[in-house]
Amino acid sequence: MKFVAAYLLACLGSEEGAPAPGKDDVRRILEAVGAEVEDDRLELLFRELDGRDVADLIAAGREKLAYAPSCGAAVAVAAAAPAAAEEEKKPEKEEEKVEEDDDDLVCNLFDFE
């Protein structure tokens, strides 16, 4: 993920019409923040990006994300099973506290763009 992020930062920093960022550009960004540069992963990134437009890849990714659950849905489902077992043991006052904590998991889909 850090390699993709560094590549996208390099794309943002390049001028319009300039050639796509190279391995050295990504390596410099990663080294500037103290991240370890693994050459095999860097090679893999550039093999996967070879001949592709970043804007097209981002658009394709957005389409895929449209069908994926977002926010805390997966966390809520994963927490439901242990919470059900604990509900039997806890008094009703503590159960209300759990409901208040669940409010932090609620997301607004329109906050992200």
Q: How many distinct beta strands?
A: 0
Largest sheet: none
Order of helices and strands: HHHHHH
**What is the helical fraction, as a range of percent?**
55-70%
Shape: globular
Low-pLDDT regions:
none
**Which strand-content bin applies to the residues?**
under 5%
Output the keywords:
113 residues, mainly alpha, 6 helices, 63% helix, globular
What would you say this structure looks like, in words?
The chain is mainly α. 63% of the residues lie in helices and 0% in strands. It has six helices and no strands. The chain has helices at 2-13, 23-32, 39-49, 54-65, 73-87, 92-102. Helix 1 (2-13) packs across helix 2. The longest helix is centred in the last third of the chain and has 15 residues, at 73-87. It is globular and about 35 Å long. The mean pLDDT is 75.
SSE map:
Blueprint: H1 2-13, H2 23-32, H3 39-49, H4 54-65, H5 73-87, H6 92-102
Helix pairs in contact: 1-2
Q: Could you write a compact summary of the structure shown?
A:
It is built from six helices and no strands.
